[in-house]
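<given_protein>
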Amino acid sequence: MAVYGDLRFASHHDMMRVIERALLRGNLPLKYSQGFSPRAILSLAFPRPVGAAAERDLLVLNLEAPMLRDQLLEAANSSCPKGLEFTDAIRLDCKSTPQPCRCAYRIGVPAGESERVAGRVEEFSAAETFPIRRTKPPKRRGRRDGGAEPVARTLDLKLLIDDVRFDGETLSWRQSPRQTIWAKPAEAMKAFGLDPAGAAAMLTRTSLELRGFNEYSGPADGESDDGPETKQET
């Protein structure tokens, strides 16, 4: 699944609503949850940062009936708004959504900032460690805890970011987690001398790798899945 244009500014919640409505208009045989308010069973393996485009995201959906790959893609794309495109569809044999283990980002750097970014990239690459401080609001146990102090922790970006490359115009890097901790793209941009507030709209997530999952595996083109229940990725 690719996301670009103005749709990149949609929040995760709004993005899921857009996707569900597009698939419903495409008449896909979506499987629904049980209960008083059934919802289509959909999940994004690794939600994008708001403002970032994505060349290949993983959407996991459950179908009540199998579909041919080309038919599924045609139906899914038939009612997509501008900025959303389903690029591939394969069967997943796992019972849960695959977990991300690595991703890559790319961002264009304005000519006036290239010298500063090149220097910061060189500093980052040469450093043995690159500590940053991350703070978040305290967990709220009630409405009368306004005096609680923010929770702060120190992270080493060198453990979370690698393969940093800058050719004078385009900056790219890879991110992988340390246990369950990921670097935020805004933290990476700041480390490389970019203003996250102004540069976020130029950011693109170019790839997403999933643990124990090859994004190009699955049934061949035109081959359908067997069985009454199907879980597919688009």
